[in-house]
């Protein structure tokens, strides 16, 4: 019989303690979202994503989340998310000053920036990777990449399509889509974050994992 797989996100209970942890990890940028409903959905997305893995909080993930790439000299995935959200807000603010008609929704932008990597706990969960790699003929290998899985998480918790599109399109999957203005900003904020830190010598390549792809 097939396992519950990845479609059981709505079934597993999420504790209020985990929600509170996630809320704390995403501040202060989370509070830049004006809509309380949207703030709660962002928290729910990350809480659900974490609850279905062996991680206990966003801070358990390396900044990149990856098992096979450089790591930051300090910080975690929570710092990365908050950094991308802060950069995205600055890009939008500068462009809005010059072009007030810029069609960027601030709430969608921040929610999308905070959720753009919400699929990473699944893709980089060492337990899921080990299980899947032990039986690659069952569901293929490697695991789903974090952009499509992140879209799945976003839609499961009721986040708007606009935020789910940012999760799906922020990385190279977005090269074959028409990115929204908010997704375009998050894409470049994410790229700026990594490429600037890497070229500045703030990334260290010292990680190995036998369960790597
Ligand atoms: Fe990212």
From TrEMBL:
Gene3D superfamilies linked to this entry: Hypothetical protein af1432
Keyword check for Transferase: yes
Superkingdom of source: Bacteria
Keywords: Transferase
Keyword match Ribonucleoprotein: no
GO molecular function: transferase activity
Domain HD/PDEase: 73-206
InterPro entries: HD/PDEase_dom, HD_domain, HDIG_dom
Pfam family, one: HD
Protein name listed in UniProt: Putative nucleotidyltransferase with HDIG domain
Organism: Aquabacter spiritensis
């Amino acid at each position: 019989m097939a396992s519950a797989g990845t479609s059981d996100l709505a079934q597993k209970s999420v504790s209020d303690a985990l929600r509170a942890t996630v809320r704390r990890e995403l501040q202060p940028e989370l509070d830049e979202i004006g809509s309380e409903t949207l703030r709660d959905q962002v928290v729910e997305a990350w809480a659900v994503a974490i609850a279905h893995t062996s991680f206990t909080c966003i801070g358990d993930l390396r900044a990149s989340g990856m098992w096979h790439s450089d790591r930051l000299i300090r910080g975690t995935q929570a710092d990365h998310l908050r950094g991308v959200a802060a950069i995205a807000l600055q890009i939008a603010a500068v462009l809005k000053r010059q072009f007030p008609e810029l069609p960027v929704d601030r709430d969608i932008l921040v929610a999308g920036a905070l959720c753009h990597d919400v699929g990473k706990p699944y893709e980089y969960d060492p337990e899921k990777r080990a299980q899947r790699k032990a039986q690659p003929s069952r569901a293929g290998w490697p695991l789903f990449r974090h952009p499509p899985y992140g879209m799945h998480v976003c839609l499961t918790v009721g986040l708007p399509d606009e935020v789910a599109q940012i999760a799906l399109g922020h990385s190279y999957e977005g090269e074959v889509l028409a990115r929204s203005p908010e997704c375009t900003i998050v894409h470049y904020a994410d790229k700026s974050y990594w490429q600037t830190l890497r070229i500045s010598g703030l990334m260290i390549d010292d990680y190995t994992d036998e369960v790597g792809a």
